[in-house]
Amino acid sequence: MEIPTSRASSDSLRAGTLAIVRVIPTDERAERCEAAAVNAPELQQTDPQSELFGSIRADVVKANSVRGGLVVFAAQGVKLCLSTGSSMVLARLLTPHDFGLQGMVTALTGILALFSDVGLSMATIQRQVVTHEQTSTLFWINLALGAVLTLLTAALAPALVAFYHEPRLFWITVALASTFLLGGLGTQHSALLVRNMKFVTRAKIEMLSLAASVGVGITMAALGFGYWALVGMTLSSSLILLVCLWLSVRWIPGRPGRASEVRAMFHFGGTLTLNRLINYASLNAEKILLGRFWGADALGLYGRAYSLVNLPMTQLNSSVFTVAFPALSRLQSDRERLISSFLKGYSVLLSVTVPATIGCILFAEEIVQTVLGAKWLAAPPLVRLLGPTILVFTLCSPLNWFLTASGRVTRALKLSLVAVPVVLVGIIIGLPYGPKGVALAYSGAWTLLVIPITAWAIHGTGIQAVAFWKAAKPAAVAGLLMGICGFALERGFHGLLPPLPRLALGSSLALAVYCWVLLAIMGQWDLFRDLVSQVWRRKAAKSNVTGLGTNSSLP
User: How many Å from the N-terminal Cα to the C-terminal Cα in the chain?
Assistant: First the structure.
């Protein structure tokens, strides 16, 4: 089986070739380059599995992270457009009750999904070096867990029907159960793709699976399948993703090895899974309780509002995490570079996610009318009430990435154990008042937690509080001023323009204020200029190497 050549080895060849350009006379270059071209493939193929399981140099990590970040951001923009477009269409073809039925099932499958992976994909990515035998063992474990969870989900369908008093949930649950088996087959392939920082390939796979599943969902909804359109959309996404992963990652698992070879990875993955389970409880308890005590309509309304305000942060965080986690994991042995890279990435992430979230809060009414339509006019107050929660997630989620990448999964678990009781108390306080009461209490609880969580997360890691605030301050100050100006613009344009022009004009002006404050006043221009210059330097290096291989008369 042919294995693609190593990116690390390829970058090493490029760096060496550039050195030749600088110090070797012109008449010797062609001969040297020809020899390098002949010998490089032999050197790169001496260990074919190093592409998938070896380590990556720190300088290559930085270069791949910058380029990969741009690629993933662009892909997330496309995915955001697809997700938003599908929401607009499906919200007009389906009812809140249809979305509520799916939400009732996904509350269960979301919990069980935490155990389908048990953190083993993250363990594969986080380890400095893994072997074929270790990854094969993890593959068979993930597959076995996927099969067990498929059967368990189907077996729990009657209980879900009894809990919600909704008979239609039975076959929805049975159908969605198969996603666990499909996920188990692709977990380690996806992990190897991320571990080797193949961000372009991953982006293509995700966009293809999303576009195809959106097509399936909209087609089924237009044909009158109702809530089954949402089920078909989920199943087709999982199936297409699996097929693309196996075609892209040229790795076939072998026989499982001894458990002792993956014991440390089990400990890491188990702790991470427990942390995810606790976080899931804190992030979804209000949806479960709303569905139980207020019904599918209330849950569907709350769920759409939550998804709408959370969509920009989720999309952006997902793209950054895809790049940041493998990059930070590769730098965990270099504490100074790890902290520096995290703080720079944190500042860039906040610079992008903060204005998107604030924009959703400011122009909630316009967004709901434009995206969801007239059936969802009760959603804007929920979007605004949930806004503070999403801002807290924007600030705190990257800290969990840092702790996990640096091997501090136990501290991340303790942070979750402290946060969950506070959040649950807030939900219970707001539950008697319906969706609005839950949204207000939920945001209040998370707002109270933001400072304690941040202080504990960075304590003893080498990240100084002053340095952390310096990274967060530009986006915070620019976001505050954007909020003030945006509120004035939204009030001023209200009633003067239709929703879509009001959204376009108001959000554009508010974003212009944000960018001016961020780049000109807060001095973030240098940070973004440095990122762009790194990309250009990388492109120039590739151009020089290509020209050297084809033109021996270069000066």
Answer: 41
Task: Please tell me the number of Cα atoms within 13 Å of 48 on its side-chain side.
Answer: 6
State both tokens at 389.
């929660």
| 3-state secondary structure at position 252 | coil
Residue 59 predicted with pLDDT over 80: no
Task: Please give the helix or strand (H or E) that residue 496 lies within, else none.
Answer: none
What amino acid is encoded at 186 in this protein?
G
Contacts of 114 (CB under 8 A, 6+ apart): 273, 276, 277, 280
Gap between the Cα atoms of 310 and 346, Å rounded: 18
Within a 10 A sphere around the Cβ of 65, how many other Cβ atoms? 22
Spatial distance between the Cα atoms of 8 and 2, rounded to a whole number of angstroms: 17
Residue 88 confidence (pLDDT):
82
- Cβ atoms of 516 and 523 within 8 Å: the answer is no
* Domain segments of the chain as ranges: 7-48, 69-257
**Residue 454 C-beta-side C-alpha neighbours within 13 Å:** 18
| Spatial distance between the Cα atoms of 254 and 262, rounded to a whole number of angstroms | 15
Q: State the residue for tokens 């070096």.
A: 129
The whole-angstrom separation of Cα 528 and Cα 499 is: 33
Summary mean pLDDT of the chain: 80
